[in-house]
Every structure is written in C-alpha cells, then in structure tokens.
Amino acid sequence: MMKENTAAILRWLFSENNMRHLIIPGLISLLMVLWCCPAYAEANPAAFLNTGVGVRAMGMGGAYTSISDDPSAMYWNPAGVAKIQRLGITVMGQSMGAARWDTLSDVTPVYQFVGIILPLQSLNFINILGDDNAVGIGYISNALGGVPYTFLDDSGVIVREEFDDRECAWFLSYGFSLLGMDSLLLGGTLKYITQEFTRIEGASASGYDFDAGMIYSLDEGFNVGVLLQRGAELQWANGHTDAGPFTTKLGVSKKFVLPESFSVLGSADIVQRQTTPLFSHFGAELGYEQEHGGEIFSMEGIFLRLGLDGVALEDRYEYRDKINNNVNFTAGIGVKFSYRKFGIQLDYAMGSYRLGDKNRFSLNIYL
Question: pLDDT per residue over 117-160, tens digit each?
C-alpha cells in the first residue's frame, strides 16, 4: 500500500502540468538564488575558454545559453546536446587581423575547436530519466607563439628571448531530456585543462572545470536557459593554485516565424561573475529556410546574424564605462544545405576587438 501511495505521489509530482507550473519555476528560483550568492576567487585562470566556440553563436554575440542546438552546445549549454538527433561533427578556426598594439604585431595566435556529438538513442541506449540523450567530446587548442620576454641570467646579463603559450581543454558532455519531456533538457560538461609557457621553469599547469545546464522550452518558440560554471582550478608545477570564479548565465530566446519562409531569432544572456560587473550578450538572426525536397543536393537555408558581446549592466568595481567603451560588435552569415544523406552548415563571423578584428569559420556536418 505504501509503495502504491509513493508511486501515486511521484506520478503527480512529476506530471507535465506540475513540471511546467511547480517544479520548473522552483528550479529557476533556486538557480537565481545561487546566482546571487557570492563566489570568491583569486584569479581568472584558463581565460582562453572565454573566447567561445561555434561561429553561429559567436556571430550572435555569444547570446546562446537558451539556444545551444548544434555541437557547440557542449561549450554554451550542455543541456542542448540532447537536442541533436544525428551524429554531429564540428570544426572551427579563428584568425586575427592586424594587431592594434605594435608590441604584439609579431605574435601569432592560433585558436581551434573540434567536437563530435553522438545521440545515444541511435545506439538504442535509453537512460532511466528520459529518451533523448547524447554525449559529446570536444577539444579547444589555443596557442600564442613568439611572445617576447626579458630576464637576467645568473651572471646578471640581460637576456631577451621568446616563449610560446600553449593552452588546451578537453570537453566531455552529456545531455538528456528529463522524464522524456522534450520541453526540459539537462546536461553537464567536464573539462580537463592544460597550460604551458615554454622555456619558463615551473610554468605549466593542469586542472579541471565543470558546467551544468538546463534548457526549458515554453510554447511558441520561447526558450529559457541556465548555465552554472564552477570555475576552472589549475595546479601549477611550482605549487601555486589558481581558482576561477563561480559563474551563472541566464538566457532567453524567441523565434518569430514570418511569411514566405522567413524567421527572426532574438536572444539575450545575462552573466553574473564575482570578479566582474553584471554583463550581457545580445544576438539576432534573420533566416530563410526551406524543407529538403529529396534531391541529391538541396539548399535549405541562409542566415544573417548580428550581436553585441559583453555589455556591462552595473558599475560594480567601477568598470562599467571602461567595459562599455570597448563593447565587441559581431556579425556573421551562414548557409545550410544537404548532400545526399549529409546535412552541412557553413558559417562565418567577424568581430571587432581591442587587440584586432577576429575572423571565424566553422563547418558542421550531420550524418
């Protein structure tokens, strides 16, 4: 009898109506409380991870927490990994324009990302919490070569040399739909991070970070996303430890369907990080899409994107004016087509940044 009563209570508690009106607001309220809790850290290690991945997301100013519907979801919000229904592979590269600081003109940065998403339902793997689930593996490489530095040798002579800054991160992600509801997705990403300054004794480190995310889809194309980031912790060879700040992102997005196969997608993220003022990202995408007609080659869509990357909303630490005087503007274009059974998307984005303009390219393939 007790088991039957318990089962009845659980069925009532986790009914879709209560999930929509009771549990979901409760989860969001709890996350908002965590958002407002202070997090203390001494530094911001693995800062290269703030660059972002996925050219579509970066063309929209990084306002992607509530969208995250391609392989870059393992970075922006691992809950979105569960949205991908086909094996997805993504590669991305970034090039810098001429540096605006003369002292950095000979420094050559190289930033790359590769990722793969495997939907587990294609392997007939169903988790106990829901049907839609997928795993993702990704790799970011960031290298800065030819950085000059000066030091005194043992005899007191000034020596001028160069070193390389090599940073990389491995991602392991898992996303799933809770209790089989397509409207509620959860996920997590574990990151393993390494960094090395060549030719400098003791200047190598390794560590980890963890993200947890949620995406809740309401009616009529409105989505809410939440991402919690623990903050990277790096252990250096010289015994020093750097711990990053706890970060929370809250995102909303809405897709408006227009006549003649056009649509407009708008998105906004708010980011709370202890070491910086409350700031935001804004993005928009104008799309024209058509269904695949069964031909060997078929053009399925073209997209134009704009974004604002990093707008300070408060004057904590008296940084707001300084940040907003250097707001990064982004823009991009993408095309989506199919060839036989392959889905392909090509994207390009550019951004204006303090150290120079950045050009990004990515290729997504779905099998």
Answer: 998 876 666 665 566 788 999 999 988 776 766 766 677 777 77
pLDDT tens digits for range 164-216: 778 899 999 999 888 767 788 899 999 999 988 877 777 788 899 999 999 99
DSSP codes joined into one string, 26-91:
HHHHHHHHHHHS----S----GGGGS---HHHHHTTT--TTT--STTHHHH-GGGGGG--S-EEEE
Considering the domain architecture, whether residues 280 and 348 belong to the same structural domain is answered as: yes
In a shared domain, residues 15 and 81: no
Q: Which residue has the tokens 């393992």?
A: 74
Q: Are residues 281 and 182 in the same domain?
A: yes
Give the range of the structural domain holding residue 33, as residue numbers without chain letter.
1-37
- For 38-50, the DSSP string reads ----S----GGGG
Residues 27 and 51 in one domain: no
